[in-house]
Amino acid sequence: MQDRTLKEKRLGWVGAGRMGHALATRLLEAGCDVAVYNRTRSKAEPLGELGATIVDAPADLGDRDIVFTIVAGPADFQQVVAGPQGLLASAAAAPSVIVDSTTVSAEASERVRAEAEKRGTALLAAPVSGNPKVVKAGRLTMVTSGPEPAHQAALPYLNVLAGGGVTYVGAGERARLVKVCHNLMLGIVAQTLAEILVLGEKGGVSRAAMMEFLNNSVLGSTFTRYKTPAYVNLDLAPTFTPQLLYKDFDLGHEAARALGVPMPVAAAAQQVVQALIGHGYTDVDFAALIELQAKASGLELKPEATPVSDGLERAA
After folding, report:
1. According to the CATH classification, is domain 4-172 in 3.40.50.720?
2. Dist. CA 97–CA 100, nearest whole Å
3. How many CB atoms sit inside 10 A of residue 167's CB?
4. Which CATH architecture is the domain 177-296 placed in?
């Protein structure tokens, strides 16, 4: 059922990649008025079939109340907001709020925030936790930081995007730090799973049995459940690549140095991710860590061809 109040504001969307497409789809299915820009127009056109207006440049979204951005990295974020054809380029109008879910450093975000403030536009940093399948299941979570009035203005739409919950952590770039911390844990847990599964298998325990026990235990989580098919049946279609994970480790260590926090476990995990990339695991999911662990342990790893749940079917 569509909520009429969601039509009160005109929305813009920049970035129609896998995550952007999944997220924008939720707004459109909720009945929101959404105009979309993507650098490769053909990737945005399927959203047009769902009711979106497709535009030719970010500047065409300047008259929208709230604009969401989720692009490849800091250079793209800077360009789509403050570039010659960016959201702030029009002299006539600029969005009241920009909500950004791009993975960028706090420093890069602060530079864009300063440019936006010159036009009276509030920037809300809004990193997400999940992948397109998690989005579809309504289990995505989001953390935000920036001016609280901007958070409140965007909250009805954030709740549509993040069925798993939205956490506001205060002013400035704090949400960027939270996302970096999240992804440090992501890499550490992924490597831990690789190690214990290989250990169990060498001792005669199937990966499916190990994951079933783990997922039903106090240590089970949404993450361990939805990575189960990858670890058990070696379904390594990329949701998040080793290179992207490695970059987030860099961001984490940069923040740790600035704040004087030792990160010995994270440092060790990053070295394994670097080794994974060095062994040619690039266009795959970071769960490929289990294959590297198996090789280091003298184990020939094979898909178990066992039906296992990712824990998202019921939610979807």
Report:
1. yes
2. 10
3. 12
4. Orthogonal Bundle (1.10)
Q: Which residue carries 């079933």 as its tokens?
A: 212
- Please name which of 238, 239, 210 lies closest in space to residue 306, comparing C-alpha atoms: 210
Lookup result for tokens 């054809």: 85
Which ranges of 128-219 does DSSP label H, i.e. alpha helix? 132-136, 148-161, 174-202, 207-216
Provide the token pair at 120: 């009276």
Amino acid at 27: L
Separation between Cα atoms, residue 216 and residue 208, nearest integer Å? 12
Alpha helices in 203-304 (DSSP H): 207-216, 222-226, 228-233, 242-259, 264-278, 289-296
Whole-angstrom Cα distance, residue 314 to residue 202?
33
Q: What are phi and psi of 281, to 5 degrees?
A: -85, 95
Mean per-residue pLDDT, 94-121: 94
Q: What is the mean pLDDT of residues 144-161?
A: 98
Domain boundaries, the chain: 4-172, 177-296
Q: Give 34's strand partners.
A: 11
pLDDT, tens only, 180-234? 999 999 999 999 999 999 999 999 999 999 999 999 999 999 999 999 999 999 9
Give me the half-sphere count of Cα atoms (radius 13 Å) on the Cβ side of residue 65: 13
Residue 157: partners with Cβ closer than 8 Å, 6 or more residues away: 6, 9, 11, 27, 32, 66, 68, 99
CA distance 103 to 147: 19
